[in-house]
Fold these 2 entries.
Entry 1:
Amino acid sequence: MTLLQVNEVTHAYASSSLFRRSKRDTNILSGVSLRIEEGTCLGLLGASGAGKSTLGRVILGLEKPKQGQVLFQGHDLYAVDSKIRRQLRRDLQVVFQDCYSSVNPRMTAEQIIGEPLGNYESLSPQEQKRAVGELLERVGLSAKDGGKYPHQFSGGQLQRINIARAIALKPKMIVLDEAVSSLDMVHQTNILRLLSDLRSAFGLSYLFITHDIKAAYTIADALAVMEKGQVAEYCERKEQFLLSPHPAVRSLLGSMLSEHPRYRSRERLS
Ligand SMILES: Nc1ncnc2c1ncn2[C@@H]1O[C@H](COP(=O)(O)OP(=O)(O)OP(=O)(O)O)[C@@H](O)[C@H]1O
């Protein structure tokens, strides 16, 4: 079943000048359409500035598009009333690249992970503490880590806390915006494995935004490439991607091969 459907979305940022917005505001997204099925992961690739994060924000309900629709669980995100919107928000979570700026440095891990629970659930302090402890364990940390502050964790551990916060409300979908890009290879591999485990355990769907084709290929079922605000190529099965003649795909594959000689053969990607 389709969980998310983006229909012909076009978006431009308002001009930052003091003068009124003019017709010359260039479109950052132009007629973008895509869909994510329940329990699947779409890897969204593209060069810097292609519009990936902007599309992510539109999908999260944070950036109202100039035109087009975002349907989440069949509801138009930008047309529903505030009550349904709040319900949809709990089912649609996000993890960003910068794990440090995503958290309040003055809050403990327990407070960070407990925040969405406090906003949406009426748990007693003991119940919330137990729920947070379970979430910490679920992402490979210890319940005892709940009292620590962000600076006491490594980048990989802190990203696990961000993931624990994202899954706290048992959402349907998580937008992962370059969520592993700032981590070293070992942490990257471990977090990708954790994300795959959580996906199976909770039936989650992911929009995995990245410029890293290897990471996208590892985790995604379907792959799309954005170029200049448009979806240049979409492959429902990631294996098709390797055979795509589209120049944007060939260029991504080419840059990966030149950077990582050990991935010279197609077989090693799988
Ligand atoms: N808040 C904003 N106001 C104005 N322009 C913006 C804003 N955010 C992004 N842009 C512009 O929109 C374009 C697309 O940016 P976006 O961050 O969506 O691309 P991206 O593909 O995610 O790039 P990257 O991989 O570098 O993060 C860029 O030209 C960027 O400068």
Entry 2:
Amino acid sequence: MPSTGADPIPLRVAVGVVRDERGRVLVARRALDRHQGGRWEFPGGKVEVDESVSTALRRELTEELGITVDECRPLIRIAHDYGDRQVVLEVRTVDRWSGEAVGLEGQPLDWRLPHELDPADFPAANRGIITALRLPGHYVISADCHEPAAWLAMLDRVLAGGERLIQFRVRLQGEDRRVLADEALARCRAVGARLLINGDVALARALAADGVHLTGRELSRLRERPLPPDQWVAASCHDPQAIRQAASLGVDFAVLSPVAATASHPGAQPLGWAAFNGWAAEAPFPVYALGGMTPDDRAMACRQGGQGVAGISGFWA
Ligand SMILES: Nc1nc2c([nH]c(=O)n2[C@H]2C[C@H](O)[C@@H](COP(=O)(O)OP(=O)(O)OP(=O)(O)O)O2)c(=O)[nH]1
Ligand SMILES: [Mg+2]
């Protein structure tokens, strides 16, 4: 019987990001005659009926690489439609494993640092995995600026504390705003941190900042991604429709809020972790939990399918 298009039941795939002590990740090249053949992948394979994701991952990594997974934890879940096949990639980070990885099916292997991974070498669904590997577990949103010297001193303290992803969220206007953003960018660059400009694509472009953070309103109005792939585009989402809009624009990551009650938005109804988990699972990109979060909530956010936690109070401090 002729095919009538893609199989409506998505294929569940257990995918392992195996890391070594230097932070490099293991990639393998898919054989030319297979689906997405010739592209690089993270090792793994189909989850069999009655198998859990972690059981499938252990089996696949033993079959394909000859290693034993000692422990794995969720990184991201990505649903993707290739047209000829729908997949759901259940991606786990594997930091604890034993044995020596070899390409037991004849597949070439390579160890690469996250910034050495080019999404163009991988199947399209892998873009969100590569972004997740490059992003930290905290996304620090700045407080507003009343006095530039004090604001910059706080930025220095936040950077000295090890934070590496900062959102410039400051209500200053005109030249004052541009000058402060430019100085903030220089201080971030000096320590290898990234700075995203809230709600101002033009300023992000003018300063060649690391990216822009779209407000919910901007996200709903845009029809195309406002910056090229070498600058991040992040967005604020409050519901599944915003996540779909962000996906259609091709944003790199999002914050989903308010997960818990927060003093900055006292009237807003908290989502709770169950809704966060369900909505983040629909996003093909990493999602940070925002709203009433502290650094202590990071592990919970990761267990719930998030990239980590975002916030002002508790982070910009
Ligand atoms: N393993 C893996 N599969 C991926 C990645 N990205 C991606 O889109 N896929 C897709 C390609 C395939 O359609 C599907 C994996 O199926 P597969 O056929 O390779 O699974 P398998 O290892 O069980 O292979 P086989 O036993 O059927 O030979 O997921 C990735 O990074 N790793
Ligand atoms: Mg496989």
